[in-house]
Amino acid sequence: MSAAVATAQSAQGAVQERSAWKETWTMFARNRAALIGLVILAVIILIAVLAPWIAPHDPTTQNLSLRREGPNAGAWLGRDEFGRDILSRIMLGARATLLAAIGVIVLSGVVGTAIGIVAGYRGGIADSLLMRSVDLVLSFPYFLLAILIVAVAGPSLRNAAIAVGITYIPQYARVVRGATMEVVGKEYVEAAHASGVRGFRIAFKHVLPNISAPIIVITTVGLALAIVSVSSLSFLGLGAQPPSPEWGAMLASGRQYVASAPHISIFPGMAILLTVLALNLVGDGFRDTFDPTLR
């Protein structure tokens, strides 16, 4: 009899979870701007994944006789200062830029979320020590700190992603700590304590799933900021190194030809702009969906 009751309760919980996800998607879909951003983002991700197979030319092949050539039938977005196809380089650059941004979010999200949950759940001395460490990182201008880290570690796209990821840890830590402190006093957490669950199992099994909404929102917005930051470091020569295609590096290589061949800089800049805009639209949609005060 108890097994049948448990099975029925499990089935009811699964139905309620599906209903909650359906309601969440319905609310998100009401935001037309967020849907447009989601479609744009899906197309960009698809291009990044399929870039090696759909790029019309080899992004590293030089043709000096066609250097700085404008857009035409053979090269839809024109060619750069070495005669390389800009469209192909933007496609491959999408993969490099997005992977670097995802690496930023994974590093900052995992570390920052862990710090925030431990600080908010444990409180006391652990909270004070962890949050003072976060405040120490916040005391430095985040972009200057990233430049310092890359200068010490050496210029590369990987080091740029790590540097930006370290500077973004405090954002996750503060948001997650605040959300954790609100959840810790809830009835289901007290029920877990009463049932004999102890330690960080409660924090990561019962608290983390219930603070996922702010984490999703900050992750979406953080991806946009990560793309801008990584591209900025590459623009300064501290990220991707030639001849690797990356949007920030491509933008930097065309700055001296703005007057004579503006397409070299315009199209990589538009790729950054479009991706960041799409992520911001999706982030705003998630914020409106998960924030009950905005519904």
Return Rg in Å: 23 Å
Q: Main β-sheet: number of strands, strand sense, barrel status?
A: none
Distance between the termini: 42 Å
**Would you report the number of β strands?**
0
Structural class comes to: mainly alpha
Question: Helicity, in percent?
Answer: over 70%
Mean pLDDT: 85
Low-confidence stretches: 1-16
Strand content: under 5%
Structural shape: elongated
Number of distinct helices? 11
Query: Quaternary state, please?
Result: single chain
Strand and helix order: HHHHHHHHHHH
Describe this structure in words.
This protein is an all-alpha fold and 295 residues long. Helices cover 74% and strands 0% of the residues. It contains 11 helices and no strands. Helix 3 (86-122) packs parallel to helix 6 and helix 4 (124-138) runs antiparallel to helix 6 (157-184). The relative contact order is 0.14.
Descriptive tags:
295 residues; elongated; 11 helices
Mind sketching the topology for me?
Elements: H1 2-29, H2 32-54, H3 86-122, H4 124-138, H5 142-153, H6 157-184, H7 187-194, H8 200-207, H9 212-235, H10 247-253, H11 263-290
Sum this structure up briefly.
This protein has 295 residues and is mainly α. Helix content is 74%, strand content 0%.
